[in-house]
Specification:
The chain has 82 residues and is mainly alpha-helical. 49% of the residues lie in helices and 10% in strands. It contains 4 helices and 2 strands; from the N terminus they run αβαβαα. The protein has a two-stranded parallel ribbon.
């Protein structure tokens, strides 16, 4: 996400630094393919890093691996049963 206000790493920092959102999985999708870019995203808490162009199957595989074992927060789980 490159906009006039925040870049992708700044958005990642905002998500990972908030107690309300720090557990959200964040996959970066970017044209920045340097090893240093990937390393910086990982250091800041990115859960995945995809360099454009990438295979949609790669993203699907990543989602299946990372979402499969996650337990939803109690509030969300409760809303599913009511």
């Amino acid at each position: 996400m490159l906009s006039g206000e925040m870049n992708g790493l700044q958005v990642l920092d905002a998500i990972k630094s908030s107690e309300l959102t720090c557990d959200i999985l964040v996959a970066m999708v970017t044209a920045c393919g340097q090893h240093a870019d990937r390393h910086e995203a990982n250091r800041r808490g990115a859960d995945g890093y995809f360099i454009k162009p990438f295979s949609p199957l790669e993203l699907i595989d990543w989602l299946q691996i990372h979402v499969r074992g996650r337990t939803p927060p109690a509030e969300v789980e409760k809303s599913w049963t009511t």
